[in-house]
Specification:
Length: about 325
């Protein structure tokens, strides 16, 4: 009897606040119980290291982030997913000719290729429209995940008539490579209209950088009234039970409303159903405000995200946080 009471008390610690949704929305998923050995969210780099992505190669972890001082793509490494070292290298030292002279490189992501090299996706302002972004792709010059990477001469995707594209992330499902990205429709919201910001899925060739011929991108998810003006920062993973989790952020990145949410599907191409409970919102962890830009490992075991460095606004930048991730059925939670 005592054991049952203790377990119930522990489970209660991890119940998360419910997202504000219409009355017609489904009831939130039940809270999940946790093994206390799971790594809790922790600030891994207390510097400006936003939009982090992570990849494990052998025993080493690598993290890549939005441009920083003197670097187009920032890099950090870890032997244990706990202690991280910031590197001096720039993973993408040279910009291709299609990029604006003020490149504004955002949200890089790296995936392995079958030949031992790596593909890197990044968002950058195009020379033809410096107020928008397009997604580019690059390949490592060797087998070191740190690079340097050499970018393709043309963008991977560049729908400027829809607002551009950002936040590309790679995902492999079986033998097929995919890239998920955001149509940056909110870049056109200055006209007084709230534009769509769909998350798109594009199949790619084995080189990781070429969209499959005659295979147009598929819209997986778009914003609704609960998301504010946008959704962005998509990241895909597949659970051992075959459930696809599509993580994303909603609301504006420079506000406390920014969050980490997710949707699930039993088929990669959808339909996806949004969870009524975000994975993480401001205030759930002491000192964490504006969490977002999450990237998960393909097996959904771990996640990296950013939060406001000073804990109350973005003026000092956004630090990198890392954590174990727990999924069961169609629910995902952190060990808070």
């Amino acid at each position: 009897m005592l054991t049952a009471v203790l377990l119930a008390a522990l489970a209660a610690l991890f119940i998360q606040p419910i997202r504000s949704v219409p009355l017609s929305s489904p009831a939130p998923a039940p809270a999940l119980a946790y093994d206390l050995a799971f790594k809790q969210p922790e600030c891994s780099l207390h510097i400006d290291f936003p939009d982090p992505s992570i990849i494990q190669v052998g025993d080493m972890w690598y993290a890549f982030a939005t441009m920083g001082p003197g670097r187009n793509v920032q890099v950090a490494t870890s032997h244990d997913f706990h202690h991280w070292d910031y590197l001096e290298q720039d993973a993408l030292p040279q910009m291709p000719s299609w990029v604006h002279q003020i490149p504004q490189v955002w949200a890089p992501d790296v995936i392995p290729r079958a030949d031992g090299r790596f593909a890197l996706y990044f968002s950058a302002a195009p020379a033809s429209a410096g107020d928008k972004h397009c997604v580019g792709a690059a390949v490592s010059s060797g087998t070191d995940p740190v690079g340097p990477y050499v970018a393709n001469d043309t963008p991977f995707v560049c729908p400027l008539d829809q607002g551009g594209a950002i936040d590309a992330a790679g995902f492999r499902d079986g033998d097929q490579h995919f890239v998920v990205y955001k149509i940056d429709g909110n870049s056109m919201d200055g006209d007084g209209t709230t534009h769509p910001t769909p998350l798109m899925l594009q199949a790619v060739d084995p080189d990781g950088t070429t969209p499959c011929a005659n295979t147009p991108p598929v819209a997986l998810l778009d914003r609704d009234d609960n998301d504010g003006p946008l959704i962005e920062a998509p990241s895909l993973g597949r659970s051992p039970d075959g459930v696809y989790f599509l993580f994303f952020s909603s609301n504006a990145w420079n506000t406390d409303l920014y969050d980490i949410s997710y949707a699930t599907a039993t088929d990669l191409h959808g339909p996806y159903t949004k969870s009524s409970t975000p994975l993480l919102t401001s205030g759930q962890i002491a000192g964490v405000s504006g969490p977002g830009g999450a990237r998960v490992t393909p097996d959904l075991a771990r996640v990296a995200f950013h939060a406001q460095l000073n804990g109350h606004d973005v003026n000092d930048g956004r630090s990198m946080w890392t954590s174990d991730l727990h999924v069961r059925g169609h629910s995902a939670m952190l060990h808070l």
